[in-house]
Amino acid sequence: MAQAHQDSPGRHPLAERVARFLYGITGGTLVVRQEVPAEPHWVWITAGRVLPHPPFSLQLHDTLGGHPAEGGAAVFHLPPLLASYESRDQLMERILFEGRLNRVLIKILELRISPVAGGAALEVGADLDREVTLGLWFLPFVLLGGALLGVGGAVFLVPRLLSFAPVLDGISLPILASGAGLAVLVVVLLWYRWYCRFAVRKAEDRLQWMLARLREEALSSLQPEVAEGSKAGYRPETDPDPPRA
User: Fold this and answer.
1) How many other β-carbons are positioned within 10 Å of the β-carbon of residue 67?
2) Beta strand residue intervals within 90-190, DSSP E
């Protein structure tokens, strides 16, 4: 499920409300979350085996606030499509993953693994501020295009409607034209809103898919001692980080 962080600093409250209307989120951050019945450090070890390799091919860039399995965050970059892939399906998965994230200008992901009752919570966050800013910048042009389309359509259609519906003769042409133009403008605005939310939803689906693959891999390779809630057989000093960029 998408979650919201605080409003983006520096953005006018009106712009923030418009962004919420268009994208369905508050602030500029998309966060998805899943839980896995495994120790946080074991999940991090699994992340080191899964995320740097196809179909994700993420590059660990930095860590913030300590170890990612102990309250910190791992910062991953999404590099261009350069890695080699074992199969066509794996390549298509990577193209779809990168394409959905690039569509909303996501290039950096932050992964957090927090202890919860019965296991660990996986949380990945992505900054949408650039996408929201671009969407707000394009909005006036979308509205202008909708207004011109509405006026042009009204000028073309209203006289023809009057010829087929004499009951409309009592309504002045400017009122009919204004009503038709406003209707077209509303339709264009709702379409743009759907388009923005659709793009965010598809990016969210890809992030959920990534966490599901990580969860599946963590459970399939889970040590029996760890599955029982014990750290027997696990040594923090052997906890590897994924390769850094």
Assistant:
1) 17
2) 108-116, 119-127
Q: Virtual CA dihedral for 92, 94, 96, 100, nearest 10 degrees? A: -170
Q: How many CB atoms lie within 10 A of CB 39?
A: 24
Nearest-CA neighbor of 38 among 238, 216, 237, 239? Answer: 216
The backbone region for 50, taken as left when phi is positive above 0, alpha when psi lies in -120 to 50, beta otherwise, is alpha
Cα 146 from Cα 140, distance rounded (Å): 10
Contact at 8 Å (CB) between 244 and 61? yes
d(CA 150, CA 206): 36
- The rounded mean pLDDT for the chain is 79
What phi-psi label fits residue 38: left (phi over 0), alpha (psi between -120 and 50 degrees) or beta?
Answer: beta
Give the integer Cα–Cα distance in Å for 195 and 147. Answer: 18
* Domains delineated in the chain: 13-131+205-231 (3.30.530), 134-193 (no CATH)
Q: What is the full DSSP assignment across 135-155?
A: HHHHHHHHHHHHHHHHHHHHH
Q: Is the pTM of this model over 0.85?
A: no
pLDDT digits (tens, 9 = 90+) for 42-53: 999 999 999 998
- Tens digits of per-residue pLDDT, 24-72? 877 678 999 999 999 899 999 999 999 998 888 899 999 998 889 888 9
3-15 as b/e, with b when 16 or more CB fall inside 10 Å?
Answer: eeeebbeebeeeb
More confident residue, 165 or 69: 69
Region of residue 228 (left: phi > 0; alpha: psi -120 to 50; beta: else): alpha
Question: What are the residues whose beta carbons fall under 8 Å from the beta carbon of 206, sequence distance 6 or more?
Answer: 96, 97, 100, 101
